[in-house]
Amino acid sequence: xxxxxxxxxxxxxxxxxxxxxxxxxxxxxxxxxxxxxxxxxxxxxxxxxxxxxxxxxxxxxxxxxxxxxxxxxxxxxxxxxxxxxxxxxxxxxxxxxxxxxxxxxxxxxxxxxxxxxxxxxxxxxxxxxxxxxxxxxxxxxxxxxxxxxxxxxxxxxxxxxxxxxxxxxxxxxxxxxxxxxxxxxxxxxxxxxxxxxxxxxxxxxxxxxxxxxxxxxxxxxxxxxxxxxxxxxxxxxxxxxxxxxxxxxxxxxxxxxxxxxxxxxxxxxxxxxxxxxxxxxxxxxxxxxxxxxxxxxxxxxxxxxxxxxxxxxxxxxxxxxxxxxxxxxxxxxxxxxxxxxxxxxxxxxxxxxxxxxxxxxxxxxxxxxxxxxxxxxxxxxxxxxxxxxxxxx
Length: 393
Hints:
alpha/beta; Aspartate Aminotransferase, domain 1; 2 domains; globular
């Protein structure tokens, strides 16, 4: 850990442990201590740590071909793209390396489409306060969180922010320069903020009325996290563009931007690129992860079942500790417990008890475990939370 402080930039506030091994919902540190992981790599490890099918796919691909270039056709990339198109609204896929890159690609495609089909001065994208779309300069500018933007001014122009879940505010923000609306179906980094069930339908209608593209950032909500393959399926809509990452690779870094043919056509050779985007290794892992989600109906069903069980158990804690817990919300296994106090100390005490959880927004505990979660693992989490709440109440 001293070497980490010496050689790594201090861009993370790291916990004082080194994690060395993981299987399913469990990880072990360098001292051999076991932890139950409800962080899941921040909603990345949808199948748990080191799922056998992902590991085998990586091993086989690593022996065959690691990297060439997108100057050539790449078999695992084509197969993964076909899977994504077959099971989504989209017709075309662009691969990159992260959620931020996927959102950058979505922003560029949107502006290019507007120039091609609308007018040269339609470039503005409306996003929501509380949103998080990435750490690059453009995606940071798109994100509706001032605290993340401080110190990086001037921001990239062309973004306007409105309150989340307020359709009238969205309508009022549209000008002759607007070309798109970009939203997360559920705001993850803002504290698992849920929209009304008809909100995204209303956004879709507004986009159609004003000839705006509708971009859904499903970096955190996608790939089964909410109990369906993509969160938009819960709301009875389809976007024009969607960004994916996190759970897509089964633990391996990969991002994707999906779009309908009519929109995707605005990207031509030279419009956009990513040297490592869609490399054979990452695509082989993502293909195995997606096939596992699709082939084993147990996983998505289990996500919905464990969601109800976990929320019910957390609601039980809320009743027992009303002075500490303000509310529980979420969809699938993307769940937040809002506290009446800062939750950093709670996270630290849980760590000591062998349970990893995450604090966002200062006062929300976020739970994004593997979709293979069991009742026994939920019960252990609740046992630890009850012990911790008893200590601090």
